[in-house]
Amino acid sequence: MSSPTVCAEPVMGVEKPSRLSLANMVKLSVLGVVSLALLYAVWSLYLAGEPLFAVLVMAVLVGFALIYGNRRFYTARFVFPAVVTVGLFIAFPVIYTSYVGFTNYSASNLLSFHRVNDIHLSQVTVDKSSERPFFLLPVEGGYRLVLRGADGDLISDPFVADGQPQQLPMQASGELAAPAEAFLPARDMVRLRGELGAITALLPDGQSLTTSGIRTMAHVQPVFEELEDGRLRNRLDGGILVADHSVGFYRDEAGNQVAPGWRVNVGLDNFKHILFSEGIRGPMLEIFIWTVAFALLSVLFTFGVGVLLAVILQWEHLRFRGLYRILLILPYAVPGFISILVFRGLFNQNFGEINMILEAVFGIRPEWFTNPTLARAMTIIVNTWLGYPYMMLLAMGYLQSVPGDHAKAAALEGASPVRSFFSITLPQILPPFAPMLISAFAFNFNNLVLILLLTRGLPDIPGTLIPAGSTDLLASFTYRISFMDSGQNFGLAGAIATLIFFIVGAMAYANFVALRRAVAAKGK
Fold first, then answer.
1. Keyword Cell membrane, does the record have it (predicted)?
2. What CATH topology corresponds to 23-101?
């Protein structure tokens, strides 16, 4: 006998809320909030005069709205954050840096042409003979302007300081029966300096005065006026300034450049300076060779020391291995910048402990910071100290995967421990080490922090047109040109950074191919 089937009928007038509808509402709410936030960022960047960044954020906004607002792009939702991150923090900086390398962007060419034009037109000259101190007398509903002068005081009708342009006719005040305490204090006038700048005082003789200081007014007139053809004429001496867009400066009648300048495209000029100017090409070639040597030696020494210590710590008959392991990992636990500054003190030529020990034992005091060879040796020593713990930790893990039977079989065949290591152990741990060695090379190729904190690129290379030091890497060399040189030549630094990008990429790829072939050859 089959049991009766009970059918639940919906109760009239009672409807369960739809979970799908609620989820859609939440999704649309989040989508709307994020979109509005991005749209506000776009508008703020545009108002701040950064249209390029505004376009980038707008592209992110459009992609976000399309991908997360349409189910057809469901799978792209998991990739979109990574694509945006790569685009904003990797691709865009590289592209923008390369773009800067084709411009004259520097400390003297920071602004746009329109901004430079406005700066010249905003220059004013003050007629000192017309300068008069002024005061504000608070009255009901506003203030009255009082001008002091040798021929008597002048006073205006009441006005409101609201920042709008105003012309105040001045009239003789006679005997102004107001004590000094009745005038507005200086600190309050400072707060109103913006509003007071919009006021023009009209004297009875027809002269007009505007603010020339916090407490003074005078006849102020612009220095330059713009002619119909775009040239600027000096009202004082009649001189003419002509915009030269090939160099990004105004030129006077004698051909001299008049600062400030503006950004213009200079094509390959920066790259030509790097490749063909002897004062730049010579030191840059020396720095490039040292950079490659520094990166290779740093990888070689950190790898060699790290693997050697890992092999020693793997020796089962070594007592206190745990203590040694902790002590050898300590340099990795200390922040790098602290260790670098400590070594800077240890290597001090006059008071450093290293020179004190060397003088006491061998009677020598090496010039670590003034001799180019010793300075470079010091940077490699310090970098080896900073980098070997990482290699040691990796090697300790990789050595665990090497079968012990191989070493035992080699020992039975009469192979020495050294031969067994280079013939059996090293070929087995080198393949997983290869990507780490390539990344270590790329990192040391651009190890800016070590150079800036330890040597600051010194000692300088003599006879250069730009700041260049014997211990400078290409990264620190570019940093000094961009931010430490008085000229702050961002365009030249951008060109150098572009070359570094392609050089490092090519060398990293070449190292990867060479290591892969070497590992494949050893595996046969």
1. yes
2. Methane Monooxygenase Hydroxylase; Chain G, domain 1 (1.20.58)
